[in-house]
UniProtKB/TrEMBL annotation, chain A:
The keyword Iron applies. This is Peptide deformylase. It catalyses: N-terminal N-formyl-L-methionyl-[peptide] + H2O = N-terminal L-methionyl-[peptide] + formate. GO terms for molecular function: peptide deformylase activity. InterPro entries: Peptide_deformylase, Peptide_deformylase_sf. The active site is at 131. Pfam families: Pep_deformylase. Its EC number is 3.5.1.88. Binds 1 Fe(2+) ion.
TrEMBL record, chain B:
GO terms for biological process: methylation. Its EC number is 2.1.1.176. One of its GO terms (molecular function) is methyltransferase activity. Residues 175-450 form the SAM-dependent MTase RsmB/NOP-type domain. It comes from Jingyaoa shaoxingensis. S-adenosyl-L-methionine binds at residues 265-271, 289, 316, 334. The active site is at 387 (nucleophile). Its main location: cytoplasm. Specifically methylates the cytosine at position 967 (m5C967) of 16S rRNA. This is 16S rRNA (cytosine(967)-C(5))-methyltransferase. The keyword Methyltransferase applies. Keywords: Cytoplasm, Methyltransferase, RNA-binding, rRNA processing, S-adenosyl-L-methionine, Transferase.
């Protein structure tokens, strides 16, 4: 396993549409393992393959209760809404307010190309949407309401209140 | 995706304020959650669970840490100490968090805060703890009963020493056990505003769970609500949040039509309001307290419940007030105390209180009693109460008061239910113990002025 370099906003690879995965080859398994390790190392809760420069429809997510690996994910259902701060490993140290569905249902393949369905609320729903957007070249910054904050600034604002 | 704030860092901030700055956990946790309102429910739940859990189990956690750390807990840097404490709490009490995540997050936080040199120490202690947690040898119940209670229930030994001198081992263990359980919210129906049935109906219409409580038929337990302020029956002044033990004060005071009552340390005013209820618009209740803030707090309550026979007044109970002499039919002296009876609601009282502070409180209690006793009419009633457990602030004060002032104990049996009656209630006082009784820990003594 290895830690891969995370592409930063401005890199054109983050603006492209990713291709479907047809088969899980040993190289793809290695990619998934590396993505997980990279996400954990960087304190992320989710990472999409284009963020490490690979244009394939693969995302990994771990919001604290164990990892999910989603290959060729398709969001089938979005319900409700939540507005909250999120950030992205491709734009370190920043965050902004984004409105996302409260509940989503996503259909995807696992590492053995078996289809499964995952339902998520709150943070998991937010992470699923955020990562799936990456696969279509969308950064959360295009969805931010109001300003983009420095995380340090966000802490400080709170402290001054 | 990333989260803009690290929940574990927030928890560390909370623990720092509680353990290093002497602030109360329930206040710090509430303030922090208000500050980070945009956090998701799940993060908020995690923050309060870990912060509260760590504080509730502090002595036990420190005991575990000392099995695996070469450095004594008290000699650690405060940041590292609290980091290790909250991590051990997660290892021992939260199965939903993988051990590896606990260790990794702790190491990253240590690094982030500039403790590079202690990274290996944190990692070593926590990995060792995670691996050998099941093999920790805890103090033996038979051989070292006090140490056993202290580590099992995270209760300081000085408190246990006093309790074990006064109660048998099983009683003390029951008290400790009960204080670990979540204390429910208890309310007093304001029967002058609505009947109990109407109040229950109104609560249930808002999907609040209501349960009956022993000892008093107008006391209820409520759960499954978010904010008190959103409850209609509360907004209308139909009930007051008050533990059943504290309701017994007005019950035992037994005010008669037209009585003049003085409550010398009244804020937030629950017992005074109760007296005022019982007087049904007659008589008068003077609810006194020390500061403008406390008096304002009571005025808000008065406003909400629309009283005509009660007033909130700023008056220091340790300063003699000539105008009050022999004025009161009933005087409530519910005095500042160590609060060991309500540790179930405020877990960190036990770590903040010390024997020396307790002795200071006894002095204040005696000073107040010495100042206010003469406000009671001859033949009138003085009720002394505290929300603590233990002879120093309770039984010894009763004896001291009887020895020095023209009062005698007066049986409280006519005013309490059969279940609560005992030799001491017949004599005139009652020590309520959590677990033994279905209430907070509380003490009440009823005196009558004889000269």
């Amino acid at each position: 396993m290895a830690i891969r370099e995370i592409r930063i906003q401005g890199d054109s690879v983050l603006e492209k549409k990713c291709k479907e995965v047809k088969e899980v080859t040993p190289r793809i398994r290695e990619l998934i393992d590396d993505m997980l390790e990279t996400m954990y190392e960087e304190n992320g809760v989710g990472l999409a393959a284009p963020q490490v420069g690979i244009l394939k429809r693969i995302v990994v997510i771990d919001i604290g209760d164990g990892p999910y690996v989603l290959i060729n994910p398709v969001i089938e259902l979005k319900e409700g809404s939540q507005t909250g701060y999120e950030g992205c490993l491709s734009l370190p140290g920043k965050s902004g307010l984004v409105t996302r569905p409260m509940h989503v249902r996503v259909r995807a393949m696992d590492e053995d190309m078996e289809e499964f369905v995952l339902e998520g609320e709150e943070l998991l729903a937010r992470a699923i949407c955020h990562e799936c957007d990456h696969l279509d070249g969308i950064m959360y910054t295009s969805l931010v309401e109001g300003e983009l904050y420095d995380n340090e600034e966000l802490y400080q604002n709170e402290d001054n209140e | 995706m990333t989260k803009p704030v690290n929940t574990r860092e927030i928890i560390l901030g909370i623990l720092w304020e509680i353990t290093e700055e002497e602030r109360y956990s329930h206040v710090v946790i509430r303030e922090t959650l208000e500050k980070y309102q945009y956090l998701e429910k799940r993060d908020r739940a995690f923050i309060s669970r870990v912060a509260e859990g760590t504080m509730e189990n502090l002595i036990q956690i420190d005991y575990i840490l000392e099995q695996f750390s070469s450095v004594k807990v008290k000699d650690m840097k405060p940041f590292i100490r609290n980091l290790l404490r909250m991590s051990v709490y997660q290892l021992k009490y939260m199965d939903s968090v993988p051990d590896s995540a606990v260790c990794n997050e702790a190491v990253k936080l240590a690094q982030k805060k500039g403790f590079y040199t202690l990274k290996n120490f944190v990692n070593g202690v926590l990995r060792n703890t995670a691996r050998k947690l099941d093999q920790v040898a805890y103090p033996d119940k038979e051989k070292t009963p006090r140490k056993y209670l202290s580590v099992t229930y995270s209760m300081p030994e000085w408190i246990l020493k006093k309790w074990l001198a006064q109660f048998d081992f099983d009683t003390v263990e029951t008290i400790c056990q009960t204080m670990r359980k979540e204390s429910p919210t208890c309310i007093r129906c304001n029967l002058s505003k609505a009947s109990k049935e109407e109040i229950i109906q109104s609560l249930e219409a808002q999907h609040i769970t209501v349960k009956e409580v022993p000892y008093l038929d107008y006391a209820l337990e409520i759960s499954d609500y978010n904010y008190l302020q959103a409850i209609d029956a509360f907004k209308d002044g139909w009930f007051q949040v008050q533990d059943v033990s504290s309701m017994l004060v007005a019950e035992v005071a037994d005010p008669k039509w037209g009585n003049y009552c003085i409550d010398v340390c009244a804020a937030p005013g629950g017992k005074s309001l109760h007296l005022s209820d019982k007087l049904a618009g007659s008589g008068y209740v003077e609810a006194r307290d020390l500061t403008d803030y406390k008096v304002e707090l009571m005025r808000e309550n008065l406003e909400r419940t629309k009283r005509i026979n009660m007033e909130a007044v700023k008056q220091d109970a340790t300063v003699f007030d000539e105008n009050s002499v022999e004025k009161a039919d009933i005087l409530l002296a519910d005095l500042p105390c160590s609060g060991l009876g309500v540790m179930g609601r405020k877990p960190d009282i036990r770590y903040k209180m010390t024997e020396a502070k307790q002795q200071e409180l006894v002095k204040i209690q005696r000073k107040i009693l010495d100042t206010v006793w003469s406000y009671v009419k001859v033949g009138g009633t003085l009720i002394y109460s505290t929300c603590t457990i233990g002879a120093d602030e309770n039984q010894y004060n009763v004896k001291w008061f009887l020895d020095n002032y023209p009062f005698q104990l007066d049986s409280m049996d006519p005013y309490i239910c059969e279940e609560l009656r005992s030799k001491t209630t017949k004599a005139g006082y009652l020590q309520l113990l959590p677990g033994v009784h279905s209430s907070d820990g509380f003490f009440i003594a009823r005196f009558k002025r004889i000269r």
